[in-house]
């Protein structure tokens, strides 16, 4: 895939996706809706939605918010042009790019190394990463928790074949974890916080020192052509982050009501979540994401080597 820096030239040649062909710039009358995909775990997006910050930043542009149960469905919708914008962790876009999905990295939040962990049950005898050898470990395949486990196994001096990964969605993984069907669980907030608050889990390790646990914003190719719209989206998300910092208690209550999580769980999530303004990807972030892609390729978990920079938006 050619570099995203050539998108304007490709647009001139008419080599655009269906989404680009249908996208209405904000300067035109009766624009089509800006479709934003989100999940319950995306704090910035959920606060932005509840405060109508995008609508304030882009007056006159209809905004549709589309909720997804998990990242794979969101990425598929982005790739086929069903939504224009969404947030994901570090690993899902690697798997999507390797599968040939038409997506573009456009923005990122600062690292959050304390917001995911490898959990064991409170009474577990496991105390070190080396003791993971031969153990059954639950995780969502292709998620940020997948890369955390890859790094944890490496840090322990083990091989991937030394463990028994059990690929489960978070809800199923928690059930398996609590009944003892797996020995450990690699997971992110808010599931991590909920397991801690319930008193049934403790972190064997967090991501700190293993992964940065980065969060990215991806867009359809049509939206990439509209830099002013992207800039306003970043500003709205950054406004939401500032609102959370200034109004922590109210934001926690609002997020708890929407997500169905307990207030104590939400407060724990916010306690270890750093300030998270949104902006374009730095060269350092692209390089770090390339390491994620290379790690999965070395293990044979993606079918081919990929170059992350090929699908990173470069602002004018």
Automatic annotation (TrEMBL):
Database matches in Gene3D superfamilies: Periplasmic binding protein-like II (3.40.190.10)
What SMART domains would the database entry show?
PBPb (SM00062)
**What are the UniProt keywords, alphabetically?**
Signal, Transport
Q: What is its main location?
A: periplasm
Q: Where in the cell is it found?
A: Periplasm
Domain Solute-binding protein family 3/N-terminal, chain residue ranges per copy: 33-259
InterPro entries from the entry? ABC_SsuA_sub-bd, Solute-binding_3/MltF_N, SsuA/THI5
Can you tell me which family this protein belongs to?
Answer: Belongs to the bacterial solute-binding protein SsuA/TauA family.
Q: What is this protein called?
A: Aliphatic sulfonate ABC transporter substrate-binding protein
Q: Which organism is it from?
A: Piscinibacter gummiphilus
């Amino acid at each position: 895939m050619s570099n995203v820096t050539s998108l304007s030239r490709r647009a001139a040649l008419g080599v655009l996706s269906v989404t680009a062909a249908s996208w209405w710039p904000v300067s035109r009358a009766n624009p089509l809706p800006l479709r934003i995909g989100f999940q319950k775990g995306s704090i910035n997006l959920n606060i932005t939605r509840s405060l109508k910050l995008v609508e304030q930043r882009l007056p006159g542009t209809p905004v549709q918010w589309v909720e997804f149960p998990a990242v794979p469905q969101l990425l598929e919708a982005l790739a086929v042009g069903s939504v224009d914008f969404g947030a994901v962790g570090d690993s899902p876009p690697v798997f999507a790019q390797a599968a040939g999905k038409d997506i573009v990295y456009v923005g990122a939040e600062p690292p959050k190394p304390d917001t995911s962990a490898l959990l064991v049950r409170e009474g577990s005898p496991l105390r070190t990463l080396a003791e993971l050898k031969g153990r059954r470990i639950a995780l969502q395949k292709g998620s940020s928790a997948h890369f955390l486990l890859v790094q944890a196994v490496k840090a322990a001096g083990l091989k991937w074949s030394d463990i028994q990964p059990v690929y489960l969605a978070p809800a199923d993984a928690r059930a398996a974890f609590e009944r003892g069907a797996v020995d450990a669980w690699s997971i992110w907030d808010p599931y991590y916080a909920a397991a801690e608050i319930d008193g049934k889990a403790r972190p064997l390790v967090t991501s700190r020192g293993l992964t940065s646990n980065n969060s990215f914003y991806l867009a359809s190719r049509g939206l990439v052509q509209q830099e002013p719209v992207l800039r306003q989206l970043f500003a709205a998300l950054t406004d939401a982050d500032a609102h959370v910092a200034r109004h922590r208690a109210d934001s926690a209550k609002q997020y708890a009501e929407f997500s169905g999580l307990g207030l104590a769980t939400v407060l724990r999530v916010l306690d270890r979540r750093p300030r998270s303004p949104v902006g374009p990807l730095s060269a350092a972030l692209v390089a770090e994401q390339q390491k994620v892609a290379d790690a999965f390729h070395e293990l044979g978990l993606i079918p081919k080597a990929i170059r992350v920079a090929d699908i990173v938006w470069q602002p004018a």
